[in-house]
What we know:
Blueprint: E1 6-9, E2 13-17, E3 23-28, E4 31-34, E5 39-42, H1 46-63, E6 70-73, E7 78-82, E8 85-86, E9 89-96, H2 99-105, E10 112-122, E11 131-132, H3 134-139, H4 145-167, E12 171-185, E13 188-194, E14 202-206, H5 216-219, H6 225-235
Antiparallel strand pairs: 1-2, 2-3, 3-7, 4-5, 6-7, 8-12, 9-10, 9-12, 10-11, 12-13, 12-14
Amino acid sequence: MKRRRTIYEGKAKILYEGPEPGTLIQYFKDDTTAFDAKKKAVLEGKGVLNNRISEYLMTQLNGIGVPTHFVRRLNMREQLIKEVEIIPLEVVVRNIAAGSLSTRLGIPEGQALPRSIIEYYYKNDALHDPWVSEEHITAFGWASPQDLDDIVNLTIRINDFLSGLFLGVGIKLVDFKIEFGRLWENDFMRVVLADEISPDSCRLWDVQTNEKMDKDRFRRDLGGVTEAYSEVARRLGILPESTQGGTGPVLVK
């Protein structure tokens, strides 16, 4: 089968030309990076797991009326998505202190925050995705005040829903990164959730033990990365119990 034209290749995904105008195919790679891609590895099966987990979470969010770019999963590694104009911001939601927040502000990792905090980072690899304020965003035209209102409203809904969903399967949603895009339908534009939601973009801790079930296992050389991702998928009902201890993830269709 002839491979479609590559539109963009990132660290963990590739975007290909879609089968119809206004669509793209999003391919999940096994490549894993950390610390501005200074640390790299290929973890067999990680892309398959992220594809399935992101499909599940995007479908759940679509079901409660959160607009996303997701259309459907095509196979083990690919999704059909709507083509959007990506807003050049990484939106980070923090519920519990961890990562750079703990480092910057000296807050012990694991300390619950007084309330959920939304942060913005300018998507620019050459500048290492610097932290920015709403003033920077509107002054430089990366997003309009209305775009930001939409982003904040959607982000709060996403955080509330995902926090409850994960808590229901014994997982704390410590923090997560999401991205948004502008979806144009004729002359009408709306802001929608884009990219992915997976253990690559979330910090997920076991409720009882605080064991890390996310990309921090790679960042901190804890090992068992794909096993942790598989456990997240199993708890969400994506992997059957019988696959535990097997030779690798076997996904439910």
